[in-house]
Amino acid sequence: MTSVPALDRTIVLLRGDLFPALDSDLLARELSAGHVLLGADSANVTSPAAQTALVTAFLAIAQCGLKIHLDVPNVPIAGWQPPLRGSRLRDALVDLASDLITPASLGPAPAGTLQVLLGDSPPPGAGAVLRVGGGPWRGELRLGRDAEVEFFAGVEPFGAVIAGIAAAAEVVRVHTRGIRDRYGLDVAGVFDLNGPHEVQLDLPPLSLPAILDVGALDFISAGAISNACLFVLLRLPGLAGAVRVFDADSGEETNLNRYALLRRSQLNRPKVEILAGYGRPGLDIEPRELRVEAGTATAVGSLAPRVVCGVDDIPSRWLVQTMDPQWLCVGGTSHFTTLVSEHMPGMPCAGCLHPEDDLDAPIELPTISFTSLLAGALQAHRLLAHVTGAAPADPVLGASFNLRAPYSLEEIGLAARRDCPVGCEPSVVLRGRNPMASFA
User: Fold this and answer.
1) Which pLDDT score, from 0 to 100, does residue 89 have?
2) How many CA atoms lie less than 13 Å away from 291 in the CB half-sphere?
3) In what helix (H) or strand (E) does residue 410 lie, and over which residues does it extend?
4) Within its chain, how far is the Cα of 224 from the centroid?
5) Domains of the chain and CATH, by start
6) pLDDT in tens, 269-292
7) What is the pLDDT of residue 361?
8) Helix spans in 63-143 (H)
9) pTM above 0.70, yes or no
10) 199, 171 in Cβ contact below 8 A?
11) CA distance 257 to 244
């Protein structure tokens, strides 16, 4: 574990994928020594969506351990902005930073600090500028003091969250480029550190009613992806439903690098109780301090018709699939990538997509804030698409550190497999409707 335990999983990722020659403690110090200026003027931070973009970027950058300098007005908080507390935006951001990894600063940033600015907010410093903007379903990031982006308006959180994710990813790109250059390292493979890069990313638009009732909904795991999914959903003011969250673990310091709704002051509390605390009238969140696995199936009982699964353990995904939810959305992350899929009766199932247990998976999974946020945002989008009557979509592989690429959200095929460990109907058909037939 590093000398900054909250950054441990991020360091595992950076060492494994970018800097294997660097010591863990050195990388932790490098991250903690980084500076970013996050700014907005009053005109650009009025709407709930604009504040969502700001909070997302702030949270994802802060969870990487970098020092944030805030140049943000202390306007009233617009809409629901968990995990913020209080009623004023700047005060709440400062409070949140002091409850994560590194306190934020209201003082001037060092000369040349990278600036992440909302909309056309004027740059307070001389450093390079990343401008954040977009619409209800589009997030965009443009480079330069004079770059133009669309202002965020309204309440829809999806484009705003995508834009905040892109901003965090490009900030990390710039900072890791500095590490590479300072130590004269080569970074091979697909990781381009010669940014920052512009990003425009669109999700399929949805027609959302003012009151959106998701009905009975179960979350399997209260981990990073479920945190991220709820981080998005809670920003919809008309969201209603009866939610249950299943998990048996408590918050740990190493979770602070990626859990969107976890604060340091909540460590050692059951994760399900932390998430249940974000319930509100019309949206009940029931904590179920129970791990869904073979030995607890009787205690769990029947699952809700809709299930969102963010558990890392692949056999647990198979088990959930065998419990016959009417709609199951599975989200997972690996290094800088995400994979999100949905499954309904008669479709190839989660076992067809994940047919083998990853017995060699490391105990300390390599993770970073913006990858988990992307997975949860895609799950939230799939859930609302299903609730509003959209047909199931193909699984999507997301490249969180390469959002500028045409394939940053790439649909992949999902076909039934003869060796499906769940034994779903399409796989049985492939085997000639004989469950005992050879998988050969």
Assistant:
1) 98
2) 12
3) strand 409-411
4) 7
5) 34-202 (no CATH), 212-411 (3.40.50.720)
6) 999 999 999 999 999 999 999 999
7) 65
8) 89-97
9) yes
10) no
11) 24
